Amino acid sequence: MYHLLLSLALVILAYVSAVLDVESDVDMANFTLEDVESNIVRCPDQAAAQKMIDVINEVRVRGESCGGVVTCVVRSSPKGLGNPVFDELEAELAKAMLSLPATKGFEIGSGFQGARMTGSQHNDPFYMEDGKVRTKTNRSGGIQGGISNGEDIVIKVAFKPTSTIGIKQRTVTREGEETELRARGRHDPCVVPRAVPMVESMVAVVLADQLLQHYAQCELLPRDEASTPDKSVASQFAVQH
Questions:
Q1: Which residues make Cβ contacts (< 8 Å) with residue 54, sequence separation at least 6?
Q2: Angle at 119 between CA 114 and CA 120, to 5 degrees
Q3: Confidence band (pLDDT; 50, 70, 90) for 225?
């Protein structure tokens, strides 16, 4: 799978974009893996990262926990991945993300902010650039009508606070009796930084699966013995050297 995605020059990068009420401000087009791994919360925005660390430490001391958001960007995404009705690309990504532990929400492109816009505000106008069709705003998050359009795929995944905390909580025993529970042992006050590579990996699995489906259906991936590949479409899948 790694070599398949690498041959297409795909770049899949995720980072922590929010912890509790602390949000980051990241240049989505230019941040690097080194930027992400430069601190323990995996946030490229150094100022926001320090605030996230402080917030996590504050809730940890109180025996509490907190959640957050992981944002993932797929650069150099090929056009044409996905299906228009069943198995839409964003639906496959959502299913994969919500299969991860502690996930509670999924957004793509404008996400829930799009619900607060009018059609003229939210529409993603097309334009030509160097002979290629592009979109102006990418509010669609790189996917339109269930199919990738060649723009960066941008998704967000919400993770809930860790359930196991050091504060007393009400619960019910196996015998049906109400009681109190206080967890013991070592438990992460925030699992969000750990989720970054998990999100990247699941996105990679989904895209590899979609590429293999295209290979079977359309012969879009380059293959020496292919008899009649669609060169006008397959050119975007040319192996990068």
A1: none
A2: 115
A3: low
| Token output for 14 | 């995720």
Residue 155 pairs with which residues in a beta bridge?
72, 108
pTM for the full predicted model: 0.86
Binned at pLDDT 50, 70 and 90, residue 85 comes out as confident
pLDDT for 240:
52
**Backbone φ and ψ of 178, nearest 5°:** -75, 140
Q: How far apart are CA 35 and CA 116, in angstroms?
A: 32
CB atoms closer than 10 angstroms to residue 142: 24
Residue 184's identity, in one-letter code, is R
Half-sphere exposure of 55 (CA within 13 A, CB side): 20
d(CA 205, CA 98): 14
Q: Which residue did the predictor score with more confidence, 5 or 195?
A: 195
CB–CB of 157/100 below 8 Å? Answer: yes
